[in-house]
Design a protein that fits this description.
The protein is α+β, with helices and mostly antiparallel strands and about 210 residues long. Helix content is about 55%, strand content about 10%. It contains ten helices and five strands. Strands 1-5-4-2-3 form a five-stranded mixed sheet, sandwiched between helices.
Length: about 210
Amino acid sequence: MRRLLTVIGLLCVSVFTVSSGVANAMDRYVAGVHYKIVAPEPSKTQTPHVLSFFSYACPHCYHLEPVVDQWRKSLSGNVVFERVPAQWNPLFNDMARLYYALNELGLADLHGQDVFDEIHKRKRSLHTEGSILAFVQTLGLDKAKFKQALNSDVVKKRMRKGKGVMTQYKVPGVPSFVVNGRYFANISMAGSPEQLFEVLNFLLTK
């Protein structure tokens, strides 16, 4: 992990800088091999954006998360980075609900790693509303306020929207990414975690 973080640190440059590295990447990364096109036309938005599909329940997401977070912080200020929690089964649905509640309270970035650690490091289940509420209390959060967020119409609406986005891009697994509404990439296609972030940087220039 330390080696991976070091590699990503070296990649922390503006993705819009025209350089020989980008020119080389244009020769190295091929649609259908290192990434795939999931929309017939480029995104109409003028704002570069990344959708990061993940789940707190996913062990691969847990191991990649520190690198994703470092890469996210390295992005140019005009790049929009948005997390989309997977919703394939009851456990993943509960974790999506937990993410959206944290996000609604402005706490997802602050406590996301805490959730990952609770599940994968401490091996504790957060599969019920009671276990989620007991856990957030250990973070110093107000139980009643969090329960209200967890069951709010806003969270329900965001879950429906997130599920629709996953269906739209036919996301087969996590962690995975969609860049600018058109390009899908994951570790399997890129070849390695290190290569994944090189591919994502390349796609942000397209």
